[in-house]
């Protein structure tokens, strides 16, 4: 069972996942009568008796002060172990919950009871608390997943009906996670900016508070809502790692607190400092989920754990193979016409493309970015007969049809804005700042939400669309709703929730519809939006070297079938760097392959090469998108590196060497996660020159040899051009490898 009661009073619980145990204890401070909900253990799986012993080793009933920690009159370190430290009592750390009742901000919670429920394979623990004076209920929810190593937690705060108190919430996190004691701590996270999203950073966790946040109304380019923490001794495939990720696509905050007495905690939730959310009598506020995952197998094991959970439990169609798509933006920009798009579609179809997506410029009077967002009907001059003919032509070529939209944006120069200027986010007596010549529609309004669902539904129905690329190209500014008075800060929550609702309703009405999330590049990629979409655009920067570093950051948490990856023209429009077509393809093959080039400019030789590479990708697509990923080699985009994917009997290895002047470094690439006793045949990417240590096409090798000694990739040779890469494919075969396939000792360095 994934929920186990460890005592007779219902105050000690073990939540078990596949490989770990999470123990929650409820203690009563006998001095104050306050209930403390504490994390007693989070680590390798324990049987019930061992879980009881683990809990007994921490602070006992009557003295919840942090056993073994230095306690002074200025601190009570046990708050670092609370699942939801509130603003009140003997606490001076960062509060996860701040509520003011009639301007009294301190909460004093007492224990009400526990509800442990099971059904349809889902177990859930609800711990009910209430303020001892005011009509405030707080419920802590926890759900373990028996087939993964993830535990989901969230919080409900309720103002009980019948009261006349003025209740205002200024902070409500989804939960705080305690990281077990260690001599030191190291963190790993993603940060960046537009065109350099998801840059992996890693360093020693300082004493004090480390905060990652977005105040933009979207997930943001500058950080992503996840963190991994270890004791400084974990590697890619060994060591304990604790990780936390927030499932939310609006503004958010994640703070890690390392206390000077010892102990570290991570708290995360929606919103940002300064917001106020009134809570009328009878109303409640429910947080998004914050998820925690423990792994004993290093950062690689942590990533694979997240990948597996996301595909199984978060993505709406996680087991589907994502199609190879073509997007017309790089070829045409705003100059979208039916003849031009069909010409591109015919070329794309000959390459093996499966989905054709028409980007910006198809609607209103959209000749540039200055107008027409909100006027979602075909451009009168470019498509006088509508878009049906274009997409009928696309489908006749054997491809699915997709379209770019930006439902949350509005141009001041649009019929929609002229009719409904009040529909935008704005504040009384303040200007309406523009970014990218546009404003943001207030999706917190139900009329705006319903309007968006209406035209999107008609568009998908009338054009029989298979795919929407949902963009969002600017952050919130002047984010108010004057008609709501003191409650207008709720736009920071309800906008995002109504975006979710529109996506969910579209999918319910059109089960075959697939959605891609984009926000000026990688500004909206998180576990919240992934409940409603199929893949996300990680960055507007498509240079393959820069994309390697971005994709390295993305894959720490998100699986390959989430990550859109395009092959674009060379020199690259973002950075001006020239790279071979083969290298661009091999980088894009690490995700969901897309083509975003002006196909009219490609030579016959380039078209032939692209056709062959797309064919190769389709042969390995399922393994890359759904297999177990292993990061091999060095820093992607900087030095020799490789990615390995394993699924069933197929092994796929993508090998990269960005700079040919690297004369030193590793020669041998050890594969991993193979069956040591199995025989592996080289299906593709093998050499034919007979160099010792190379994989000859058709040759067979023992799994233990490939793991113990490794291979010498051609792309890793020290002398040669920049930007070399390869795709190597192996499969398990019956029988054993012939003797001449074993690497001889004289061939081993």
Give a topology summary:
Layout: E1 3-5, E2 12-16, E3 20-28, E4 35-44, H1 48-56, E5 97-101, E6 109-119, E7 122-131, E8 136-144, E9 150-159, E10 167-179, E11 186-191, E12 199-204, E13 208-214, E14 226-230, E15 241-246, E16 252-258, E17 264-270, E18 277-278, E19 284-286, E20 290-295, H2 298-314, E21 325-327, H3 329-332, H4 338-351, E22 355-358, H5 388-396, E23 400-405, E24 409-410, H6 415-419, E25 439-440, H7 446-463, E26 467-470, H8 491-509, E27 514-517, E28 535-536, H9 544-554, E29 564-567, H10 581-588, E30 592-595, H11 604-626, E31 628-633, E32 641-647, E33 650-657, E34 679-684, E35 700-702, H12 703-708, E36 724-733
Parallel strand pairs: 21-22, 21-30, 22-23, 23-26, 26-27, 27-28, 29-30
Antiparallel strand pairs: 1-2, 2-3, 3-4, 5-10, 6-7, 7-8, 8-9, 9-19, 9-20, 10-17, 10-18, 11-12, 11-14, 13-16, 14-15, 15-20, 16-17, 24-25, 31-32, 32-33, 33-36, 34-35, 34-36
Structural notes for this entry:
This protein is α+β, with helices and mostly antiparallel strands and 749 residues long. It folds into three domains: 3-64 and 77-314, alpha-galactosidase from lactobacil brevis (Beta-galactosidase, Chain A, domain 5, Distorted Sandwich), CATH 2.70.98.60; 325-626, Aldolase class I (TIM Barrel), CATH 3.20.20.70; 632-747, Golgi alpha-mannosidase II (Immunoglobulin-like, Sandwich). It has twelve helices and 36 strands. Strand 29, helix 10 (581-588) and strand 30 form a beta-alpha-beta unit. Helix 4 runs parallel beside helix 5 and helix 10 (581-588) runs parallel beside helix 11.
């Amino acid at each position: 069972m994934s929920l186990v009661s460890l005592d007779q009073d219902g105050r000690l619980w073990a939540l078990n996942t596949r490989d770990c145990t999470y123990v929650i204890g409820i203690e009563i401070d006998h001095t104050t009568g306050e209930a403390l909900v504490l994390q007693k253990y989070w680590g390798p799986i324990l049987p019930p008796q061992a879980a009881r012993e683990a809990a007994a080793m921490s602070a006992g009933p009557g003295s919840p002060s942090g056993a073994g920690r230095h306690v002074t009159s200025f601190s009570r370190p046990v708050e670092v172990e609370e699942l939801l430290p509130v603003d009140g009592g003997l606490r001076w750390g960062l509060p996860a919950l701040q509520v003011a009742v009639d301007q009294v901000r301190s909460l004093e919670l007492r224990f009400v009871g526990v509800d442990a429920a099971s059904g349809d394979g889902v177990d859930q623990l609800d711990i009910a608390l209430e303020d001892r004076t005011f009509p405030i209920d707080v419920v802590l929810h926890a759900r373990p997943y028996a087939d993964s190593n993830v535990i989901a937690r969230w919080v409900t705060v309720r103002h009980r009906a019948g009261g006349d108190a003025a209740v205002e919430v200024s902070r409500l996190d989804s939960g705080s996670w305690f990281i077990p004691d260690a001599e030191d701590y190291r963190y790993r996270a993603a940060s960046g900016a537009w065109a350099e999203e998801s840059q992996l950073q890693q360093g020693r966790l300082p004493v004090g508070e480390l905060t990652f946040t977005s105040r933009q109304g979207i997930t943001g380019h500058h950080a992503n809502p996840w963190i991994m923490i270890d004791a400084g001794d974990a590697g890619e495939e060994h060591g304990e790692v604790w990780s936390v990720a927030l499932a939310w696509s609006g503004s958010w905050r994640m703070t890690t607190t390392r206390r000077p007495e010892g102990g570290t905690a991570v708290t995360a939730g929606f919103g940002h400092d300064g917001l106020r959310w009134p809570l009328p009598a009878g109303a409640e506020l429910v947080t998004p989920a914050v998820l925690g995952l423990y792994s004993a197998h290093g950062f690689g094991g942590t990533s694979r754990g997240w990948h597996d959970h996301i595909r199984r439990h978060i993505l709406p169609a996680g087991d589907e193979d994502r199609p190879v798509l073509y997007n017309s933006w790089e070829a045409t920009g705003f100059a979208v016409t039916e003849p031009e798009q069909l010409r591109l579609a015919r070329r794309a179809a000959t390459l093996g493309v499966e989905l054709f997506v028409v980007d910006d410029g198809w609607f209103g009077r959209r000749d540039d970015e200055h107008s027409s967002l909100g006027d979602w009907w075909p451009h009168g001059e470019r498509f006088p007969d509508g878009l049906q003919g274009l997409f009928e032509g696309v489908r006749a070529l054997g491809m699915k049809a997709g379209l770019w939209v930006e439902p949350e944006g509005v141009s001041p120069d649009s019929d929609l804005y002229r009719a409904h200027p009040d529909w935008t986010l704005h504040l009384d007596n303040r200007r309406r700042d523009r970014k990218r010549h546009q404003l943001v529609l207030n999706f917190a309004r139900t009329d705006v939400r319903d309007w968006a669902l209406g035209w999107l539904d008609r568009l998908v129905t009338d054009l029989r669309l298979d795919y929407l690329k949902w963009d969002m190209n600017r952050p919130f500014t002047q984010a108010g709703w004057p008609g709501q008075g003191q409650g207008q800060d709720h736009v920071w929550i309800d906008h995002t929730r109504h975006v979710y609702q529109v996506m969910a309703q579209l999918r319910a009405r059109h089960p075959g519809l697939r959605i891609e999330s984009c926000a000026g590049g990688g500004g909206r990629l998180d576990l919240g939006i992934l409940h409603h979409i199929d893949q996300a655009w990680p960055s507007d920067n498509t240079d393959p070297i820069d994309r390697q570093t971005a994709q390295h950051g993305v894959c720490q948490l998100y699986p390959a079938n989430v990550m859109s990856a395009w092959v674009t023209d060379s020199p690259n429009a973002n950075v001006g760097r020239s790279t071979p077509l083969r290298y661009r393809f091999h980088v894009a093959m690490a995700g969901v392959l897309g083509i975003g080039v002006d196909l009219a400019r490609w030579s016959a030789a380039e078209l032939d090469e692209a056709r062959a590479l797309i064919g190769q990708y389709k042969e390995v697509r399922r393994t890359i998108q759904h297999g177990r990923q292993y990061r091999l080699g060095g820093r992607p985009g900087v030095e020799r590196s490789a990615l390995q994917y394993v699924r069933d009997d197929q092994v796929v290895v993508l090998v990269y060497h960005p700079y040919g002047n690297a004369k030193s470094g590793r020669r041998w690439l050890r594969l991993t996660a193979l069956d040591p006793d199995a025989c592996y045949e080289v299906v593709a990417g093998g050499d034919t020159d007979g160099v010792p240590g190379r994989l000859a096409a058709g040759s067979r090798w023992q799994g233990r040899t490939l793991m113990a000694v490794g291979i010498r990739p051609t792309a890793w040779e020290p002398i040669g051009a920049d930007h070399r890469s390869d795709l190597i494919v192996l499969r398990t075969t019956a029988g054993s490898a012939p003797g001449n396939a074993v690497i001889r000792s004289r061939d081993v360095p």
